[in-house]
UniProtKB/TrEMBL annotation:
Family matches, as CDD domains: peroxinectin_like
Any GO molecular function: metal ion binding
Organism: Callosobruchus maculatus (Southern cowpea weevil)
Signal peptide range: 1-25
PANTHER family to which the protein is assigned, alphabetical: CURLY SU, OXIDASE/PEROXIDASE
Localization of this protein: Secreted
Binding site for heme b: 493
GO annotation, biological process: cellular process involved in reproduction in multicellular organism; response to oxidative stress
InterPro entries: Haem_peroxidase_animal, Haem_peroxidase_sf, Haem_peroxidase_sf_animal
Cellular component GO terms, alphabetical: extracellular region
Protein name: Chorion peroxidase
Length: 882
C-alpha cells in the first residue's frame, strides 16, 4: 500500500490539473485526412498507450497493449473510431428528433460519444492527458459519427440580429454554441473521475470517500445562525438568477416528469442505468428513525461537445450561460410562444383576482400538472413560467410572478408610446428591456452584497455609471462553469431559513410557514393579497448566515411527500453531484484561486473555524479529498463579502464570463442589440424596489435595497410614490415622439367607449375570451378556479364605468389633449381600410349618444382622469395599424 503522504504530495496530486491548465509537453498531432473507410490516423499519440499521472487510482479503462504502435507513436485510425461507433450503436438507442432537441435526446448522442471514447481509451490504454487533450482533437465529422451529430452542435450559421435567440445560440458569432442550451458545462480544470472517464470521484488514496450523507450530517448540521444584514430577498433573487443560468440535464421520471427517477425501491435489473443512490448509514441520527437506508439520486447525462468531439464525460446545461431572463421567457422559441398571449406583446397570465382589482398571477400549469409540483388534489394546479422549476418553492414563484408582471407592464407602456408596434415588436422590446433590468439589478444590487466591493473590483464586475461599456470579448465563453453549477453557486442552500414569514404592508409580522411546506407547494398564492405579504416578508425577514450550518428543512425534509415525516437531503445531493460531475476537491479550487495548498488538515486553520477543521479530519483521509461545496461554505467570509475566497473567486469568474462573453449585454455599444445612450441611462435606473412597487398591489413603502434589512440611515424605507426610487421612462423608446402623446390618449378613449357602448361587441369580446380560455385551459378548471361568471360580470361593469368616466371628461374638457386626439384619431382612421373606418366611425357615433346620456346624469360617474389614462389599448391599436 502506498503511503497517503506520498500519494498526496502536491506535485503528484495536482500535476494532472496543471497539465491541463498549461498545455502539456505531450504532443498530439491531428491529421487532416479523409476518414471514411480508410486506415488513416485520426489521432497520433506519442509512445505506446501508457500509464500516466492518472494511475494514482485504479484505471479501470486500461486495457491490453494496442496494435497500432510503431515503436514511437500510436495511431488511432478513422476506421477504429468508426468501428467503436458501430459497436456503440448496437447497444445504445439514439434519438434524432426533427424539431427541438430535449435533454434526453442530446444525452442519447452523448452516451454514444462517451462509449466510443471509453472504447478507444481501453483499446489504446490512453492516459489521462490523452483522454482530456487528445481525444477531443479527432475530427469526428470525418467519421460515421456525423450521421448522429445534432445539427445545432454541428453547423450553425448566425446572422447578427437585434434580439437574442431563446436557446442562446449565436450569442457569439464565431463560436455559435458558446453559452447555448444543451451544451457542455465548461471546466476551470480537468475532471477527476475515478476511472478517468465518467465514474464518480473517489479519495486520492484510491479508497472510497466518506458517503455524502456522512459529510452532510457531520459537517452541515442545523445551527440556525442568522445573517446580520441580508434579507431572505437575497435567497429569492439568488435562486431566481440560478435558474437563469443553470439546470443540469438528468433523466426524469417518464410519468410525473419529477426528478429524480426512482432508484432505491427497485431491484438492480430494473434500475435506471443512471441511478447513483445516496446510501444512508445505519446509525444516521434522523433517517434511522424512519428506517430510511437510501435516497434516490440519478446522474447527469453526458453532453455532446460542439462538433461531436470525443473525450471524458462532461455534463451539460439545459439553460443558457448568459443572463437572459429565460426564467420569464423560456429557452425555446416554441415554448416562448406558448407563454405569450399573442396580443400587445403580453405574456399570458391568470386574472384570478380581477374581481378584487388585484394583479394577475402566473398561468396554470396544465400540461404536466405534477411536474415539479406536489398537488393537494387534482383540481389544484401549480404555475407555469419560462423555467420549469418555478414551483420549487413559493418564494421563487413570487419572483417569477413579479418579473412576468414587469414584462407586461413594460409591454403596455411601450404600446402607449408606440401605438403602431405590433405584438412581436412589443414582446421583443419589452423582453429586451426586462433582460437589461435583470442584468442591471444582478450586478448593481445582488453581486455587491454577495461578493463585496473588493471582489467586484478585482474581477471587473463593477458597472459603469454612464456611457457605454466596451467590454465584450469574443474570446470569452459565457457557458456555465461546472464548479459554479455543482458547488459554488449552491452557496444559497446555506442561507435558507427554516420558516418563511409573511409581513403586512405596515411592516408587521403576520405569520410564518415551514420551508418544507412551501417546497413544490406554491398554492398559498391563490389567496388574494397573500403574494404581497410574502414579498413584504422577503424584505423584512433576515436570512440565515452564510456558513456551514444548513436548515433541516432541506437536509432531512426536502421534497417531503404530504403526510410523510421525512424527505430528502439537499446537502447530500450537493456532494453526490460534485463527485459525479468529476469535480476535483476543494483544495484544487483553492489553488486555482491563488490560495495556499495544504497537505495536512492543520493548514486549514484560519481558513475556517477550528471545530470545522477538526470535523473534516475525522471523516476525510486528506484535505485534498474534501468536497468543493462543503469546503466552500465552511470558509470564513472575506471582509465585506458573504462568501469565502474560493466561492467568491468561482462565482466572480462566472459572472465575469457571463458579462464579457455576452454580445447582447445591455451596456454594450455598436451591436444591433445596443440601446441608445438615453435608453441605457433609463435601464440604469432599474431597482428591485421599483419592480416590487410597480408589480404588487398594496405595498406602498419599501427600503431602497430590499436585499438588505431597512436602516434609517443607510437603507431607509421610502414611499413607492416618493420618486426617490427612480422609474424607467419608456418615452425614450418612442419612435415618433411628437405624435405619441396625442395618439395615446385618443386611442384609449375610443377603446373604452367601444367596449362599453356597443353591447353586441362586448358580448362577442367575452365569448371570444371564454373560448380562448377553454382552448388554453381545461374548461372545468377555468370555471372552478375563477368563478368565471362572476368575473365576467364584474369586468363588464368595470369597463362600462370607465367608459362613462372618460366620456364625461371629454365632454367637460373640449380643449384637452384628449379631445383633440379624439378628432385626430378620426382623421387618422380615414387613411385606413374601410372596415376600420367603419368601426371607428361607429364608436364615434355611439360616443356621441353616450355624451348625451352623460349630460343628464353627470353626477353618477366622477372623473378619474389618471385611471383612465393608465389603460392600454391593444385591440384598437391592432385595428388601427394601417
Ligand atoms: C428552498 C430553496 C431551494 C431548494 C428547495 C433547492 C433545491 C435544489 C435541488 C433539489 C437541486 C438539485 C440538486 C441536484 O440534483 O444536484 C438544486 C440545485 C441547485 N441549487 Fe438549489 N435549492 C434552493 C435554493 C437555492 C438557492 C437560494 C440557490 C442560490 C442562490 C440555489 C442554487 C442552486 C444551484 C446553482 C443548483 C444547481 C442547478 C443545476 O445546475 O441543475 N438553490 N437546488
Amino acid at each position: 500500500m502506498v503511503s497517503i503522504r506520498g500519494i498526496y504530495s502536491p506535485s503528484r496530486w495536482t500535476i494532472v490539473l496543471i497539465v491541463l491548465h498549461l498545455g502539456s509537453c505531450i504532443q498530439f498531432q491531428q491529421l487532416d485526412l479523409p476518414g471514411n473507410g480508410n486506415s488513416e490516423c485520426a489521432l497520433v499519440i506519442n509512445g505506446p498507450g501508457r500509464s500516466s499521472h492518472f494511475d494514482y487510482t485504479l484505471n479501470l479503462l486500461r486495457g491490453g497493449g494496442n496494435t497500432d504502435f510503431n515503436g514511437h507513436q500510436t495511431c488511432i485510425t478513422y476506421d477504429a473510431v468508426n468501428a467503436a461507433y458501430l459497436d456503440a450503436r448496437k447497444r445504445i438507442r439514439v434519438s434524432q428528433p426533427h424539431g427541438d432537441w430535449s435533454p434526453s435526446d442530446v444525452g442519447s448522442v452523448g452516451e454514444v460519444l462517451l462509449d466510443i471514447s471509453m472504447n478507444l481509451a481501453r483499446t489504446y490504454g490512453l492516459s489521462y492527458e490523452d483522454i482530456e487533450k487528445g481525444l477531443p482533437l479527432i475530427d469526428t465529422s470525418k467519421t460515421l459519427i456525423r450521421e448522429i451529430c445534432p445539427p445545432f452542435l454541428a453547423n450553425v450559421e448566425c446572422v447578427a440580429g437585434k434580439y437574442r435567440r431563446f436557446d442562446g445560440l449565436c450569442t457569439n458569432l464565431e463560436h455559435p454554441t458558446w453559452g447555448a442550451t444543451n451544451t457542455p458545462f465548461t471546466r476551470l480544470m480537468g475532471p477527476l473521475y475515478s476511472d478517468g472517464m465518467h465514474s464518480p470521484r473517489i479519495s486520492g488514496s484510491g479508497r472510497a470517500l466518506p458517503p455524502s450523507r456522512v459529510v452532510s450530517r457531520t459537517m452541515h448540521p442545523d445551527e440556525g445562525f442568522h445573517d446580520h444584514a441580508g434579507t431572505v430577498m437575497i435567497i429569492a433573487w439568488g435562486q431566481f438568477i440560478d435558474h437563469d443560468f443553470t439546470l443540469q440535464g438528468t433523466p426524469l421520471d417518464p410519468f410525473s416528469k419529477n426528478d429524480p427517477e426512482e432508484c432505491c425501491g427497485r431491484p438492480a435489473h430494473l434500475k435506471h442505468p443512471y441511478c447513483n443512490e445516496i446510501i444512508i448509514p445505519e446509525d444516521d441520527y434522523f433517517y434511522r428513525l424512519w428506517g430510511v437506508k437510501c435516497i434516490d439520486f440519478v446522474r447527469t447525462f453526458p453532453s455532446v461537445r460542439p462538433g461531436c468531439r470525443l473525450g471524458s464525460k462532461v455534463p451539460f446545461n439545459t439553460l443558457t450561460g448568459v443572463l437572459d431572463a429565460n426564467t420569464v421567457y423560456g429557452v425555446k422559441e416554441t415554448f416562448a410562444r406558448k407563454l405569450r398571449s399573442g396580443v400587445g406583446g403580453l405574456l399570458r397570465m391568470n386574472p384570478a383576482f380581477e374581481q378584487y382589482g388585484l394583479k394577475d398571477l402566473l398561468p396554470l400549469k396544465l400540461d404536466y400538472p405534477d411536474e415539479g409540483c406536489t398537488r393537494p388534489n387534482a383540481t389544484m394546479y401549480c404555475f407555469e413560467a419560462g423555467e420549469i422549476r418555478v414551483n420549487e418553492q413559493l418564494v421563487l414563484t413570487v419572483m417569477h410572478t413579479l418579473m412576468a408582471r414587469e414584462h407586461n407592464r413594460l409591454a403596455r407602456g411601450l404600446a402607449e408610446v408606440n401605438p403602431h408596434w405590433d405584438d412581436e415588436t412589443l414582446f421583443q422590446e419589452a423582453r429586451r428591456i426586462n433582460i437589461g433590468i435583470v442584468q442591471h439589478i444582478t450586478y448593481n444590487e445582488f453581486l455587491p452584497i454577495l461578493l463585496g466591493k473588493d471582489v467586484m473590483e478585482k474581477f471587473g464586475l463593477l458597472l459603469q455609471k454612464d456611457g457605454y461599456w466596451n467590454g465584450y470579448d469574443s474570446s470569452v465563453n459565457p457557458g456555465v462553469i461546472d464548479a459554479f453549477a455543482a458547488a459554488a453557486y449552491r452557496f444559497g442552500h446555506s442561507l435558507l431559513p427554516t420558516a418563511v414569514e409573511r409581513w403586512s404592508k405596515a411592516h408587521k409580522f403576520i405569520a410564518s410557514k415551514r420551508l418544507s411546506d412551501l417546497i413544490r407547494r406554491p398554492h398559498d398564492l391563490y389567496r388574494a393579497g397573500i403574494l404581497d405579504e410574502y414579498v413584504m416578508g422577503l424584505m423584512n425577514q433576515v436570512a440565515q448566515a452564510m456558513d456551514d450550518s444548513i436548515t433541516q428543512e432541506v437536509t432531512n425534509h426536502l421534497f417531503k411527500k404530504p403526510g410523510a415525516r421525512f424527505g430528502m437531503d439537499l446537502v447530500s445531493f450537493n456532494m453526490q453531484r460534485g463527485r459525479e460531475f468529476g469535480l476535483p476537491g476543494y483544495m484544487e479550487f483553492r489553488k486555482f484561486c491563488g490560495l495556499p495548498w495544504t497537505d495536512n488538515f492543520d493548514g486549514l486553520f484560519g481558513a475556517m473555524p477550528n471545530e470545522t477543521v477538526r470535523k473534516y479530519s475525522s471523516i476525510f483521509e486528506h484535505p485534498g479529498d474534501v468536497d468543493l461545496w462543503s469546503g466552500g461554505v465552511s470558509e470564513r467570509p472575506l471582509p465585506g463579502s458573504m462568501l469565502g475566497p474560493t466561492f467568491a473567486c468561482i462565482i466572480a469568474t462566472q459572472f465575469s464570463y457571463s458579462r464579457r462573453g455576452d454580445r447582447f449585454w445591455y451596456e454594450l455599444p455598436n451591436q444591433p442589440s445596443s440601446f441608445t445612450p438615453p435608453q441605457l441611462q433609463e435601464i440604469r435606473k432599474a431597482r428591485l424596489a421599483r419592480i416590487i412597487c410597480d408589480n404588487t398591489d398594496l405595498i406602498d413603502t419599501i427600503q431602497l435595497y430590499p436585499m438588505v434589512l431597512p436602516d434609517h440611515e443607510i437603507n431607509p424605507r421610502v414611499p413607492c410614490r416618493s420618486g426617490v426610487i427612480p422609474s424607467i421612462d419608456l418615452t425614450k423608446w418612442a419612435e415618433r415622439p411628437h405624435e405619441q402623446f396625442r395618439f395615446q390618449h385618443g386611442y384609449c378613449f375610443v377603446y373604452r367607449n367601444y367596449n362599453a357602448i356597443d353591447f353586441r361587441h362586448i358580448v362577442i369580446f367575452y365569448v371570444k375570451l371564454l373560448r380562448l380560455l377553454i382552448v388554453l385551459f381545461n374548461a372545468r378548471a377555468v370555471i372552478q378556479s375563477f368563478k368565471i361568471k362572476d368575473i365576467f360580470l364584474r369586468l363588464f361593469i368595470k369597463r362600462a364605468r370607465h367608459s362613462y368616466r372618460s366620456i364625461h371628461y371629454l365632454r367637460n374638457h373640449p380643449d384637452s389633449h384628449q379631445y383633440h386626439s379624439y378628432t385626430y384619431l378620426y382623421k387618422k382612421a380615414i387613411q385606413c381600410k374601410p372596415q376600420v373606418i367603419e368601426e371607428v366611425g361607429t364608436n364615434i357615433f355611439q360616443t356621441n349618444s353616450l355624451l348625451s346620456f352623460i349630460e343628464v346624469q353627470p353626477q353618477i360617474f366622477p372623473v378619474d382622469f389618471k385611471y383612465a389614462l393608465s389603460t392600454v389599448c391593444d385591440n384598437i391599436l391592432k385595428r388601427m395599424d394601417c
